[in-house]
Amino acid sequence: MPPAKAMNVLVYAGTGTTADSVRHVLLSLRRLLSPHFAVSTVTADVIIKEPWMSTCALLVIPGGADVPYTRALNGEGNRRISRYVRTGGSYLGFCAGGYYGSKQVEFEVDNLKLAVIGSRELAFFPGTCRGGAFKGFEYSSENGARASKIHVKKTDTEEAYTFRSYYNGGGVFVDAAKLETRGVEILATYEDPLNVDGGDGNAAVVYCKYGDGAAILTGPHPEFAGQHLHKANAGPEYGPVVDAILADEEPRNLFLRSLLTKLNLKIPETTDAPPRLSAIHLSSHNPPDIAHLIDRLSIVTLDSKIQDSNDTFLLSSSTQPLPDVVYDDTDDLNTVPKPLIYHTASYPSCPHFSHDLFFNSLSSYRQYPGQFGTFLLYGDTVTSTNVLLDKNPDLQGHLPNGTVFAATTQIAGRGRGNNVWISPKGCMIFSLLLRHSLDLNNTAPVVCLQYLVALAIVEGIKSYCPSGKYRSMPVRLKWPNDIYAFSPVENSYVKIGGILVNSSFQRNAFNLVIGAGINTHNEAPTTSLNAIRPAGTEELLQERLLARVLVVFEEFYGAFTKAGWGAFRDRYEKEWLHQGQQVSLEMEGNAKGTVMGITDEGFLKVKMAEGGRAVELMSDGNSFDFFRGLVKTKR
């Protein structure tokens, strides 16, 4: 099964894929898997270089052309994919991705212009994928498209049935019925007569056991929903194809769900369309201060619009009608204009976030005037609070220090190594804008701020109530930037949150966007703070907890700038999972050592077992596999 509690579904969108195939995969999988999984695209560089495997629940290779896949991924890319599946991961290959996952490919062998013959490295299906199963295929064309009749095999939970699936150039898995002893199971067969010899089985879709994981390979395209096909893309003969696929939407959807379930993905009971982006509200603890901020923003505003580097913001007062936004099913949500509504007279009224509770809590927790959280951006559904602050310098440059961007749902959140992390309802999501002067860096190294905010989150949770009722919450730190909690169900510590710091340098200061997401209410996919709070205590409210964390962090930050990391080291090491842990260092040939702590400069200090030599490791270049006791070079 997929790695424990993995939340990412990664769709390859690099060399060889077609934009339309990637689009259909994203639309179908996001509708079925939200909010339990984050469905996003990756390139060959990410597969080859980034640490994606431990957080990936499913790797999808969509339609296109498999020969360019080999050029991009042969060697290290395929070794990583193979290792990922063999150690419990899941692979789903549609059409070209099905060819690519087979041991041998035979495609249009009698057509000199199209012929492809050769072996493939992954070899999840230990035989030949032969195609096209039907005549007429042309690259970048719907001329060979058809509504192919697919017969789905009977299972322990479902009777056999037939539906018509979009097909364009896919193969048949030759003699799949003879390979059952090698872990192959036929899930569906072609009913229409084939143009090639399919051997025993006429297999259209196969399940292939591979080590501790599995792959499902398809010839047709069950991920293509009729509603996203356009009759105008081809001649009059294409219209009936679209109509047939539309008519069989229910069984198509049932089959796609069954494939995901077969690969051990938990599908939410309701599969509504993914949430659409909402307006962003700009407010302040003292609402009239917003008028002065809007005056500052006027420098970069033209016709009530901020056309920034990554996003476009449509400014309007809360007393004006909401701007009209054209929103299609594009995957590039950065191109969708974001309404930015400013409130100069009162707090916004939002269904999932109480501004009154947040600002009142900020006042009650503060012992002296502060900056962090005084100005607040909030969106019910946004792309990424970090990206919206970090990638838009015109907006960022005119916001006050300590401005916070909070959200209820994040649909394109980012973690370390370009990992996408899911932020459904029930997560406390925020990003803080912090300008850290270079003059402070000798005393207070900027690298230590990720540790400081992590400590502030843990302390904020445990000091949520002045009476100390939450002090026993089993919440700990994992180096360098994760929040873990003990789950009685799992009988182990599980991840409930993470931190990401983006940094740029301007005018003698580090401009930091410190982002965090903490699971407060949603028990999927791991556990939540409210699921583990002490018996008899009140529910932790996100608005109040956010205020508490910000007040604690501002207090910590003030002390940090004066006394440095040494003032917090003992406190941090009391809360983390690693003190005295025996580890293997991958960069030292898996030599053994003991974790000693964090240095004043922010390095992880490990004492080697042989010779007692001290090794210092930087967080940006390494990651900590806590449960295996392995410090790995980040790839």
UniProtKB/TrEMBL annotation:
InterPro entries associated with the record: aa-tRNA-synth_II/BPL/LPL, Biotin-prot_ligase_N, Biotin_CoA_COase_ligase, BPL_C, BPL_LPL_catalytic, Class_I_gatase-like
Cellular component annotations (GO), alphabetically ordered: cytoplasm
Gene3D superfamilies in the cross-refs: 3.40.50.880, Bira Bifunctional Protein, Domain 2 (3.30.930.10)
Positions of the BPL/LPL catalytic domain: 361-561
GO molecular function, one term: biotin--[biotin carboxyl-carrier protein] ligase activity
Key words of the record: Ligase
Domain of life: Eukaryota
Pfam families, per the entry: BPL_C, BPL_LplA_LipB, BPL_N
UniProt record similarity statement: Belongs to the biotin--protein ligase family.
Name of the protein in question: Similar to Biotin--protein ligase acc. no. P48445
Organism encoding this protein: Pyronema omphalodes (strain CBS 100304)
